[in-house]
Amino acid sequence: MTDYSELKRLAEALHGAEWQLVDGDGFDADNRFVTSQRRIDDNKVAFAEINYGHPEAGMGEPFQSEQVTAGEFIAAANPAAVLALVAENERMTSELEQAQLIGRISCNFDGYKAVLDERDQIKAENEALRKAVLAAREFIMHEAEVRGLLDENNEVSFRHPRRQAAIAIIDAATSKGEQA
């Protein structure tokens, strides 16, 4: 982005000066001037002169269209117009920065939403695994009951350490899941 602060400062210093393209008079009748309404000793202040030239100098041709257009452009590029352009640029820059921020927020939200979706997917998978593990525990306990492998507390007997270990692992895993 271009910094227009110096251009803005200069335009503000001249603000209030209405610029216009006028024909010369008297000795300068063949010339045109970009002037301001600000006056010094009742004379308009000329900011730029578009010199037509004098016939004595061998320059008797009429104004070229580029000269007229240049004068009109200089008059139109007055402080008020420059300040309006700088203000519009500042407004558009601010809008662009806001749009970029919204874009970053949107990207962050989309990323956050993706993380939440993934979390929900993992929760669903964990719930399915928990149900499968509880079903496995129920199967082990039912099989132990049918085979007469339970002790007096209806737990798998110490004489069957692999079944006891499987039940202990299942109980530990499912109790952690219930606490969370």
UniProtKB/TrEMBL annotation:
Entry superkingdom: Bacteria
Record Pfam families: Ead_Ea22
Protein name: Ead/Ea22-like family protein
Lineage of source species: Bacteria, Pseudomonadati, Pseudomonadota, Gammaproteobacteria, Pseudomonadales
